[in-house]
Amino acid sequence: MASPLLHTTMKGVIKVKISIFEYGGYHFIPERKLSASEGSFRAISKRLRIDRDMGLCQRNYAYESKFNYSHKSFYAAAPDKECDLFRCIENGKMYIPCQNDLQEYLERPPKRRDSHER
User: Fold this and answer.
1) How far apart are CA 7 and CA 3, in angstroms?
2) Which stretches of the chain are assigned E, i.e. beta strand?
3) Gyration radius (Cα) of the chain, Å
4) Is 49:104 a contact under the CB 8 Å cutoff?
5) Looking at residue 118, what is its pLDDT?
6) From the centroid of its chain, how far is CA 99?
7) Predicted local distance difference test score (pLDDT) of residue 71
8) 40-46: which pairs have CB atoms within 8 A and are 24 or more residues apart?
9) For 42-78, how does the pLDDT look when each residue is reduced to its tens digit (9 = 90+)?
10) Could you tell me which of 84, 90, 77, 74 has the C-alpha nearest to residue 1?
11) Residues 3-13, buried b or exposed e (16+ Cβ, 10 A)?
């Protein structure tokens, strides 16, 4: 399902096409691909968080599944097959489809803990 977004300018109205799709009872907008500046796989993985409240994971995974998620079915529903990051309309968070679940992607890297902190 594609939903147009209207943007008004001084010269009139510009129609921008944004592809919104539904998956697991939530609505998503394909946001963008990961960039090289976001770092290595290790750096990117430090930005990932499990979202138990959303519950989009494979059955019998590390937390309760509210929808039978699969990486393949997520991309089958997504209009942009090349996108890495998807914005959830309901909560505003960014997500990345992973093998076993849809994980939250922290837009700001977590703060480094000072080695003197306990």
Assistant:
1) 13
2) 2-9, 12-19, 21-23, 26-32, 48-49, 56-57, 67-68, 85-88, 94-97, 102-105
3) 17
4) yes
5) 45
6) 13
7) 96
8) 43/109, 46/109, 46/110
9) 888 889 999 999 999 999 888 889 999 999 999 999 9
10) 77
11) eeeeeeeeeee
